[in-house]
Amino acid sequence: MLLSQRQRRFIDVQLPNNDRAHTVNILPSIDENGTYELLLGTKFGKVICFSGGVGSPPLRISRQRQIARTYSLEQNYPNPFNPVTRISFTLPRQATVTLRVFNLLGQEVATLLDRQQFTAGAHFAEFDGKKFASGIYLYQLSSEFGVLTRRMILMK
């Protein structure tokens, strides 16, 4: 893990199954929360994204799932991805949703969910990018609760 962005010093990270950190990349905010993201490449070929990153408070990871009380669109996982990624969202109550993917020119390239009815709670859809070029794409969730948009990176 990065100890200091200015000094570019790292500490060793022990991961499950004897995997070890191989490379660490610092990216500007992917999820537009104003903090950096850390992409960690492992010796076994996995890529792990630590959201929050440099200059952010320590990350807290919770495995508990709660009943959705808010309308949210989560960061896709994995991100970056090749070629398939999962897009998760939560609904506070039953609603009709549309989930679309756009390129950076604002052109719609895929509709994953088209006015489909969902119950309250957590849901997901998968996006297969094998027909698309590497790059940044936007995904947008629309419902009676509003419109939420996030970015994702397809790396081939």
What does this structure look like?
It is a single chain. This protein is mostly beta strands. It folds into 2 domains: 2-50, no CATH class; 72-154, Macroglobulin (MG2) domain (Immunoglobulin-like, Sandwich). The protein contains no helices and 12 strands. It has strands spanning 2-4, 9-10, 21-27, 37-42, 47-50, 72-73, 84-91, 95-102, 108-118, 121-128, 135-143, 146-154. The strands form 4 sheets. A 4-stranded antiparallel beta sheet has the order 9-8-11-12, with no helix packed on it. It has a 3-stranded antiparallel beta sheet with strand order 3-4-5, with no helix packed on it. The two termini are 26 Å apart. The model is unreliable at 1-12 and 53-67 (pLDDT under 50).
Computed Rg: 17 Å
Order of helices and strands: EEEEEEEEEEEE
Strand order of the largest sheet: 9-8-11-12
How far apart the termini lie comes to: 26 Å
Query: Tally the helices: what do you get?
Result: 0
CATH architecture of the largest domain: Sandwich
Largest sheet, in brief, is:
4 strands, antiparallel
* Class inferred from helices and paired strands: mainly beta
> Helix proportion of residues, in percent?
under 10%
Beta strand %: over 45%
Feature tags:
156 residues; mainly beta; Immunoglobulin-like; 3-stranded antiparallel beta sheet; disordered N terminus
Write a short abstract of this structure:
The protein has 156 residues and is mostly beta strands. 0% of the residues lie in helices and 49% in strands.
